[in-house]
Design a protein that fits this description.
There is one protein chain. This protein is mostly helical. Strands 3, 4, 5, 6, 7 and 8 form a six-stranded mixed β-sheet that branches. Helix 23 links the parallel strand 7 and strand 8. Helix 5 runs antiparallel to helix 6 and helix 22 packs parallel to helix 23. The longest helix is centred in the middle third of the chain and has 30 residues.
């Protein structure tokens, strides 16, 4: 372990110990004592939610980790929950419950896995999260990606091994997120470009919607039809005579109800449709008419434990967990950052990495599915008027109350209504406006189309890996084709700019000043050296070449060796190579690597003007 990392861990451990001994931690623990738990009755729900929300506000002010240092320090005194948080909490609860039931089906898990994940995600993020709008719960993308990842394992099935393997995948993803947070890798989401992420999200939503068609239409797929989006779509559209009339009618009525209630954003239309559908299923006996139901929902069991898997099965799951980690953080950070920019908030990506990791660790230990900050619930929370993380605490309390009173009734929910709920939850992801904006920009079109095609043709898991590969290939292509500009001096100044017709910059006789517009590294260094030598060959009168490294904050071994080779080639033809705008880290590297050559003070300069002046004096 590097000394600086050990020092960082030591400092953060001391901060945790100091916080636990502080008065703010004592007040936090006293916030949820036995009296609070005894007050959990219908009449005392408001008091419990208020205590939990005030605890969130207290913990938000506590200097628990160095990851929390960017937040302003505020008094730890409890504050009352604002009206906006109450309204937003009830609205979010109305969205999360039907989504949890729907996403459990996408992950091919019992509903209890999704409900456990909702409770854990809301509780952990309400206590330790940084965004005042983010709602951490199961999402459609993580549900279907985790299912695809587990089913890709040899011998995977939907039995006991499937459930245990998925829990192990969630635990590994949470552990990786925590490790990345401690390593300060909050820029993880930058590995997936926005065009690729948007194309992936659009194709993922489209594939999920297509896979809901059999449930919505009451259609039974024959064994010969692959469970991929395109075969399902072709079969459903090509066999309308096999549609079940009662199921189609139930789906249409549920969709109409949800669509009409969208005129009132604060009314949870999906929740209303599901409640009405459950009541209708019980009163009209829809099951007797051939309408499929969700079936029995096992009770929630909060019994912490590790998955019962052989050690040999953990390694392939760890490899698959990295794709899930990228998706969780890219999707969550995109939702959080969008709302933070809109409201002028500041977020620490490393803190969010850590909290998301803890959420997934807790969910996996308590038999829950993966969680993240999905855009639909997070945007709905902000639109409903949330002003702090207390809205998540209110939503948590409402969901607990509903589960205590109405969990047994979920088995009556018709599957066509559940399919419509999934389609409604993904409607925002199918809006073409962001895609059309990128298309009109005429940039990265091929990345957008390739990401969509990868998901539809190769499936979710391989489509996600292909999307990441596309982003990396695009970045490498850009950096491996660097542009090298010649700089000239403005008259009667020490400023050097790119020589263009009419800007007044003049090249110096016997001197060539060049600047690569991309960082020097293994993929670009040889091309830059070749371009420099090509320019030198066109100027036989040269005696000195100045290479500006202002775009390179660091160099790898390939770049250093290429610079040494360039200096040697120039020395053989009677020219000298000087380096300008050399940053401190690059300077130290060259001094250690080539102390008698490029690493000497006579060859490295802070500015182009200093290097040019030195060349004239030599």
């Amino acid at each position: 372990m590097a000394p600086d990392l050990r020092q960082t861990l030591r400092i953060r451990t001391q901060r945790v110990q100091a916080w636990m001994q502080s008065s703010s931690f004592s007040r936090s623990r006293q916030g949820l004592g036995p009296g609070t738990l005894r007050s959990f009755r219908i009449g005392g729900l408001r008091r419990l939610l208020a205590q939990l929300a005030r605890l969130c506000l207290t913990l938000e002010c506590s200097p628990m980790f160095g990851l929390f240092d960017n937040l302003p320090r505020r008094a730890a005194a409890p504050r009352p929950v604002r009206a906006g948080d109450w309204v937003a909490g009830f609205c979010v609860a109305g969205i999360l419950l039907p989504e949890a039931v729907a996403y459990a089906g996408l992950a091919r898990l019992p509903v209890s896995y999704a409900l456990t994940a909702v409770l854990v995600g809301l509780a952990v993020y309400a206590l330790f999260g940084g965004s005042r709008f983010a709602i951490v719960s199961p999402t459609s993308s993580t549900a279907i990606l985790s299912a695809a990842a587990v089913l890709s394992l040899p011998g995977a099935s939907e039995g006991l091994f499937y459930g245990q393997a998925l829990l192990a995948l969630v635990l590994l993803a949470g552990l990786i997120l925590c490790l990345l947070a401690w390593a300060g890798q909050g820029q993880l989401s930058a590995f997936v470009s926005r065009p690729v992420l948007r194309g992936f999200a659009f194709a993922l939503a489209l594939s999920i919607v297509i896979k809901q068609l059999p449930d919505a239409l009451g259609l039974v797929l024959p064994p010969g039809v692959a469970h991929d989006p395109l075969p399902i779509l072709f079969y459903a559209l090509g066999h309308p005579q096999q549609w079940h009339g009662a199921s189609v009618a139930v789906a249409l009525l549920a969709g109409l109800c949800i669509w009409l209630l969208r005129r009132w954003p604060r009314v949870p239309g999906t929740m209303v449709a599901m409640v009405l559908a459950i009541a209708a299923a019980g009163a009209l006996n829809l099951a007797a008419q051939g309408v499929a139901e969700v079936g029995a929902v096992p009770p929630l069991r909060f019994a912490p434990g590790l998955p019962q898997l052989p050690l040999a099965d953990w390694l392939p799951l760890a490899e698959l967990a990295f794709g899930l980690v990228v998706l969780i953080f890219a999707e969550s950070w995109g939702s959080m950052r969008t709302l933070a920019l809109a409201h002028g908030d500041r977020l620490n990506p490393n803190r969010e990495l850590l909290v998301l990791g803890v959420c997934n660790l807790g969910s996996g230990l308590l038999q829950g599915m993966p969680v993240g900050a999905g855009f639909s619930a997070t945007a709905a929370n902000a639109a409903a008027g949330a002003v702090s993380r207390a809205a998540g605490a209110v939503a948590l309390g409402v969901i607990v109350l509903v589960l205590l009173l109405a969990l047994p009734a979920l088995h009556l929910l018709p599957r066509p209504v559940l399919a419509v709920a999934v389609i409604g939850a993904l409607a925002h992801a199918l809006h073409p406006k962001p895609l059309l904006a990128l298309w009109r920009m005429n940039r990265d079109r091929w990345l957008l189309l390739a990401a969509i095609a990868a998901v539809l043709l190769f499936g979710v898991l391989h489509g996600m890996l292909a999307a990441i590969a596309l982003s990396l290939v695009a970045a490498l292509k850009r950096f491996s084709q660097p542009v090298v500009h010649e700089l000239g001096e403005l008259e009667q100044s020490r400023n050097f700019i790119v020589i263009n017709q009419g800007n007044g910059a003049q090249a110096s006789p016997g001197l060539l000043v060049l600047r690569p517009e991309e960082p020097l590294f293994f993929a670009s260094a040889e091309r830059v050296v070749a371009e420099v030598l090509n320019r030198v060959a066109q100027r036989p009168d040269l005696r000195c070449v100045v290479l500006s490294l202002e775009e390179s904050s660091d160099l790898d071994s390939t770049a250093v060796e290429c610079l040494q080779e360039l200096a040697q080639r120039l020395r053989e033809t009677g020219q000298v190579l000087l380096l300008s705008r050399v940053k401190e880290q690059v300077r130290e590297l060259l001094q250690a690597w080539d102390p008698q050559g490029l690493g000497t003070p006579e060859r490295m300069f802070w500015s182009v003007a200093d290097a040019v002046q030195a060349s004239r004096g030599s």
